[in-house]
Automatic annotation (TrEMBL):
GO biological process, one term: translation
MF term (GO), any: GTP binding
Summary of the function given for this chain in its UniProt record: Required for a late step of 50S ribosomal subunit assembly. Has GTPase activity.
Name used for this protein in its record: Ribosome biogenesis GTPase A
Source organism (scientific name): Ligilactobacillus hayakitensis DSM 18933 = JCM 14209
CP-type G domain boundaries: 12-178
Amino acid sequence: MAIIQWFPGHMAKALRQVKENLKAVDVVLELVDARLPESSRNPQLEELLQDKLSIIVLTKMDLADPKATKEWIEYYESMGQPAVAVNSNAGNLKIIEKKIKEVLQDKLEARKQKGILNTKMRAMCIGIPNVGKSTLLNRLVKKNVAQTGNKPGVTKSQQWLKAGKELQLLDTPGILWPKFEDPLVGKKLALTGAIKDTLYNKDDVALYAIEHFVHHNKEALKERYRLSEEQVDDTSVEVLLSITKNMGFKDDYDRASERLIFEIRKSKLGRYTLDDVPKDPTEV
Ligand SMILES: Nc1nc2c(ncn2[C@@H]2O[C@H](COP(=O)(O)OP(=O)(O)O)[C@@H](O)[C@H]2O)c(=O)[nH]1
Ligand SMILES: [Mg+2]
């Protein structure tokens, strides 16, 4: 696996910007991809958010395994970390405002007691590129104000966007870079399209994907690529060779890997979650 590293200077700058913006908000919406909730978090954030109320928003729940998403929400909530899951392209986002209200209840009450009349709730979205910050922001303010796409936007002067009567959102989402010393995290990010296609070896990512599906959804792999039980039970490398052949790509494993990755991103092998909820050590 090629070493995937972000230029540390970029990361430090992004963190600094997020830190600066944090002061202006009551609560942080930390967006993570429901297919890889832990791997799509920036671990440096924990320190930054220490004294800040935050809600983990699992985006793209329509692509993730529903059972795993439920487990992740329960896991975070059991740790005292509020969490919700959404599909920002469709479905109801009321759950977010409801959660914000719940989290800020005491704070808003205290403000009222002090006679502060402005009890608007101020929030900001943060998360790694492609996690769905702009899409969510647009939905929440019901207008196309934030540019969606794969490139981080240019920071203009900051504005507050109205999202309903009581909620205000900072217009510029905080962009964080994923940090991964662990190559497995890199492969997961690559497979779901969170990092640039030029930053990893396609066959490494494809082999990881094959391993995941053999363990979690063998039937989908067998069906889509017309593999026999015997073929799918072989080593991951052999499975990739069989898939390449069945795709009609002869021995062009690179091309087959690319196609496999693309199809998994498009959910052609169904919904999936790559991160498992940590096991309770007391249960082992
Ligand atoms: N299926 C699905 N796709 C989403 C969701 N949220 C965002 N996306 C897609 O993910 C891609 C990146 O979204 P964007 O909002 O630009 O991410 P940003 O870089 O964090 O601002 C776009 O193609 C979106 O359409 C979601 O909840 N479900
Ligand atoms: Mg964006």
